[in-house]
Amino acid sequence: MKERVGNMQTLPECVVDWMSRKGPAEWHGVAANWNWDEGPVPLLWILDQPQCDRATALTIFWASEGYRQIDPRHPAYAPGADDHAIAERVLTNWPRYTTSRFEFRLPDYARHIHMPTHGLSPAGLVILQPLLISISGQEPYPIYDAGIPAECKIAYLESNGYPVSDLQRRLLADEFTGRNISPTKAEATERHRHEVQESLTDVEAMLSEVERLRRGER
Fold first, then answer.
1. Distance of alpha carbon 95 from alpha carbon 57, whole angstroms
2. I want to staple 101 with a disulfide (CB 3.0 to 4.6 A). Which of 139, 157, 162, 169 is the partner?
């Protein structure tokens, strides 16, 4: 992450400034693909918003393996660490998150979180219980490269005197036209059905050609 120089705005600050003019769908798009090397500032900002969706909070929590930061007896417990701040924020604000607009699926390892190998005490498991859920929301959301919208990258480059490439401007245009929107479950199912049907049609055509060649037809 680029350090601040004078009054220059950092990339995470540009993202927060941009998100302050957007809403839960854009916030979820940032959270779902965030580049953690850029630090936790935008994620903590999202978690502080009352309109933050439960799926968004869960996405951030489990991506940071926040379960390791809820139990002082866990070997990885580290007050002051970024993932500790995230876990603390999610747990504190969880009652404020009332919507379930987006889809979230627990990571596979969460099914076995009670196993000793995960290092949680019985008390830690009790604290974690409210976050051991999946969300079946249907709303689509933008998908951003490394969690950073092209508009933020451009704002960062321009505000700090760096050139903006044609590729970055094309990415911005793509986002505005909605090409980076994640499909709803129904849309994804229909897309998959269509792809399977196309594959079956191709196989049938190939088998028909094989049979024609077997009969010696040309």
1. 11
2. 139
